[in-house]
Amino acid sequence: MATPRMMARILGTFYVAAGVAGLFGVLGPGAGAQGRWEILGMSVVVLVCAAVSLRWGARWPRHAFHVPVGSASVLVAVVVWVSPDPATAMTAAALLAFVAVDACFFFSLPLAWLHMAFGIGVVTAALLAQGHVPLSIALALDSIVVAMGTVVRGLVLRASSASRDPLTGLANRRGFDDALQELLATAGRTGDRLSAALLDLDHFKQINDTSGHEAGDLVLCRIADVWRRELPADAVLSRHGGDEFALLLPGTSGQAALDLVRRVAARHPEIGLSCGVAEHHRDQSAADLMRRADRALYDAKAAGRGRAELEGGPGSELARDLAAALAAGDVLVQYQPIVSLPDGATVGVEALARWTHPEHGPVPPTDFVAVAEQTGLVITLGNHVLRTACSQLAGVRTPAGDHVTLGVNVSGRELSDPDYPQRVYAVLAETSFPAAHLVLEVTENVIEGESPTAVAALHELRAAGLKVSIDDFGTGYSSLSRLDMLPADVLKLDRSFIETVSSSARRAQMLQSLVAMCRALGLDVVAEGVETAEQEATVRAMGCTFAQGWRYGRAVSLPELLTGLRAGAHAVPQEAAYRG
Fold it and tell me: What's the helix, strand, coil split of the chain in %, to 5?
């Protein structure tokens, strides 16, 4: 029902109120002498218990609160029994309402009723043993206590539902934000450590798409159950929405939080999880803390998913090293041939960034490009690749004598920059590379999901003579019915189509229909990932215009590319030219 921190605060408050009530009862005007010292001693004990609860109770496990709540019932019964008169006894017995509220707020319904039954039993017995309170009066007080506990529980459940995720029972974003503000205030007063983590399920959309949303809901509930069971009692776990969870770990350093997150994630190896962890810095706002955790989450995803990273850890170091490499010109550009079909002559290339880390060796492009995307370095990286490739290929021609066509990958973040078209024009003017032979390769997701600025940039650049290629077609959101609406000149079929085209008759038929539709719309088609002669023969028979893959060569340096082009200079001039 409540966090240990809140439980400690409420329990301490009620203990303070009970202790003060006891002091008034024995030290106030007209207080009798009988039982004075016993009640006074118990009042002092209650106040000490209040101080202990307020100071250390937030660190207790949830089940530990059964002891102070049960002890409270015993203390109330003892005070009732030693009271000097019926008025004092009834006043003491009324403190049982505090026990009822605690029980209904802290525990599940069966345990709450068990605490109330125990408290009512011992206090009623004490009232009757006291000898001055009729049974009817004791039962009347008991009914009031039960009613108060029941009403409080109903109000708490109603209020807490606004801060709860109905599927998992965890806190929602609102409940998490409230807990974060409370923990930050406490950390500011006490100097205690606080760490936050963001947890994101890997490939969750694929689960929903392939197995249905019910299966996705079961996965979310499985995650919630495992983490709720394994986390410390004072941890705050919430479902932020979708497949993202957020976690607060009071009194925990960043490294300890990282170790804990990795240990708990290992409890469900069948469900991949990417985690980002950050430790709170003094005078840092809640937004800053969560922004750093979010940055660590991106680092974890960039490093290959299924892992947890601490903000300021290896992922951040990779971003800093990449920035230094770009500044020093240590990120190289290599070129993978694009050939025409059916003759196999090279007509163009795709420019690809390659980076060798001075300590760790070659870094996979999937790693450092993802880091560049999340840190904003992708604009610098893209500009470096574009400028380098245009400069190196400005005077390079194919064996047939045509200017080689250059394809460069462009991210949605680059296209969303209003200055991107002007930067492209500046590079073309500086290098004298012909605009008609520059192809901007974007994924279909960019066109479908990016800002209007990105789409407008593509239209502007096409109007200036550049070509646009839809890269990795078939992995995003576009459907065949929207091909005529895409601002594109070339379609690059994702390698997943080519891998199965020889073994799946249905995939081959689908691919042939797609190629025919593209050609009817005036779109050239590039088959990516062609590795075997059988695949080449199949995509050629289907009418693909161009092909790219290891069958024609991997990405190579400029000197190797030029050597290959000279070796093919005797080739018969091809009818097609890769110009979009």
Answer: 60, 15, 25
